[in-house]
Structure formats: C-alpha cells, structure tokens
Design goal:
With about 140 residues, the protein is mainly α. Helix content is about 70%, strand content about 5%. The protein has five helices and two strands; from the N terminus they run αββαααα. Strands 1-2 form a two-stranded antiparallel sheet. Strand 1 and strand 2 form a beta hairpin.
C-alpha cells in the first residue's frame, strides 16, 4: 500500500527532502517565539502569519508525497501511466516542492531577509520541473545504451 519510489535515486532524494522538512519544522517549533510569516505583500513585507504547527502540515504533505509514485504509474481514464523513472521523479519532486515551502518559511522565520524569499520561491518553482527533466534525460540516456 505505502511504497517508496522504486528508483533508488528518487527514493533517496524524497527521503532527504522529507527529513529536511521535518527537521526545519522541529527547529522552528522550538526556536520560534510566536507566529511565523506565511504571506508577503508586494514590497516583501509579511502581512499573513500562522502558528508554527502549520509547518508540520507542510512536512506531512512532503512525507505523504513520497508514497505517490504508484498512483503516477496507474492508468486512469484520459491519462497514460508514467514510466517507473518518471513516476519516481514526480513523487520526489512533489516531496521537494512541499519541503522547500516549509524550508523557506522556516529559514525566513529565523533570518528575515528578502533574499531568502527570492531564492526560496525560485527553488520551489523549479523543483518539480527539474526532477521531471532529470528523469526524462535519465530515461533517454538509458534507452541509448
């Protein structure tokens, strides 16, 4: 029922992302004096706050994302199943996406700098497509051999 991605590279990456998310949530829970910023205005000034337990929700999503590779491989009406490599990459990319969101919020709660937001946003936006691109290239290289 609950299976990690079958491809070792993506399994390890998904585990690393989930562990980083859980660690960041733990650090913020212990070190935070109050609510953490979760929304920023156009000037980079925080205007939305939540309690640190919200990071545990993101960590839970990251952990649960590790187990989604099986559903990416199943055929459903209107959709083709993905290959093992691509499904594993999608599961790891989803775990990375939620983990990077939690990490960005955690780092910003400890060090309020605009650079954290910019780099975190770029990492979040590129994580899923980067995993899929690497999986595509690995599939292509494997087929040439």
């Amino acid at each position: 029922m609950f299976r990690l991605p079958p491809v070792k590279l993506w399994r390890v990456l998904a585990l690393v992302w989930a562990a980083a998310s859980v660690a960041a949530s733990g650090v913020v829970t212990v070190c935070s004096a109050g609510p953490v910023a979760i929304h920023w205005g156009s000037g980079g000034v925080p205007n939305g706050f939540a309690e640190p337990w919200m990071l545990w929700g993101l960590s839970l999503l990251s952990v649960l994302s590790m187990f989604t590779s099986g559903s990416w491989q199943r055929s459903s009406p209107g959709n083709r199943p993905l290959s093992r490599e691509m499904a594993s990459a999608a599961a790891a990319g989803l775990a990375a996406l939620f983990s990077l969101a939690a990490l960005t919020i955690a780092v910003y709660s400890l060090w309020q700098a605009g650079t954290v937001l910019v780099l975190g946003t770029i990492a979040i936006l590129l994580s899923f497509p980067a995993c899929l691109l690497v999986a595509y290239l690995r599939d292509k290289i494997r087929r040439k051999k």
